[in-house]
Amino acid sequence: MQTQLSPEYQGTPDGVAAEAILRKCVHCGFCTATCPTYQLLGDELDGPRGRIYLMKQVLEGAEPTRATQQHLDRCLTCRNCESTCPSGVDYGHLVDIGRKLVDAKVPRPPKERAVRWALKEGLPSPAFAPAMRLGQRVRGLLPAALRAKVPAPRPAGDWPPARHHARTVLMPEGCVQPSMAPNIDRATARVLDAAGIGVLRVPGGGGCCGAVKFHLDDQDGGMAQMRANIDAWWPHVEGAGAVQAIVVNASGCSLMVKDYGHALRHDPAYAAKARRISALARDLAELLPQIAEGVAPRLAGKAPDGVLAFHPPCTLQHGQKLRGVVEQHLGALGFDVRVAAAEAHLCCGSAGTYSVLQPDLSRQLRDRKLGHLDALAPQAIVSANIGCITHLQSGTGVPVRHWVEVLDEALAAA
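The structure corresponding to this sequence follows.
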């Protein structure tokens, strides 16, 4: 796509990066067919190609409007379009730039600013955990919309005993998952321990991966959180006793950590360290081949009966291009794992804070997704991201779990 940057953006990091991405787009429209919001709304400007045109116009000097902002807001950043694009357009990074430039010129209404501020400051805050515990205690009294965001408390189990393993990985704490679903981290540690992989935790070290602020008009705040994580993890990734990987069990967060090298590429103090952290980052699903090999003898012939309907998060299948890994290796262990027969590639509508900021579209996508998953008559729905798990659970009575929790329970029973 031929682009003539306005003088305002010529030679700037954002302008140079955006122009390089735009030049790959050939207007083919393949992306439109797999865009969730285009399928719901049928508006070209609510599909990737239309949004690319809007961002191109801004970069060429057109004045963005509130409508421009809203079309970009309605994008889930699911990156399904990247999986479909034959030209390799890096839409995810382009929309980050486009939103930043538009938000700098288009003021948001006060209520909208307040909600976005509350999300970006509240979710990564140390106050989130006690607030979540309080919400769970009074969950039955909450309004339905708020109750949907507060998962019912579940037993978490214990951390595995300290043992020496030939391989050790670092597992970051993250922000919302430890309080919303604490069993996921503990189940991860127990499963890795059973597979002969040790887990190093850094309590109080680091925090939110930076995705929440980065995608809510506060890229500087998101990068500050990335730097804080790098500082907390760095002593464990260099020198004697260094970990072999940084393993993240929420696919939205693992995608963000893998992007540290890109996000901080212009920071002279952190660019090299950020590249190193990204190179070490692994989604938990990437360890499944080793996990399956390590636990297979214990599970031989003992996997539980019943269908597990797997919802692959967009951050796993489109962002990280990790398709089929969970289904393949859990299947090899004896689990009956199935994906929806239709639209398994489409977003469930969670998309980080999207379910709060775009509730109507989010609910439509959730119910559409659950309709396809329920057709499998599963005993449980499994996924790989805390946002997807919580969002799907708000619309169904079928248990929704992280796949590692199901594997952990099977190992305990065996």
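The mean pLDDT is 95.
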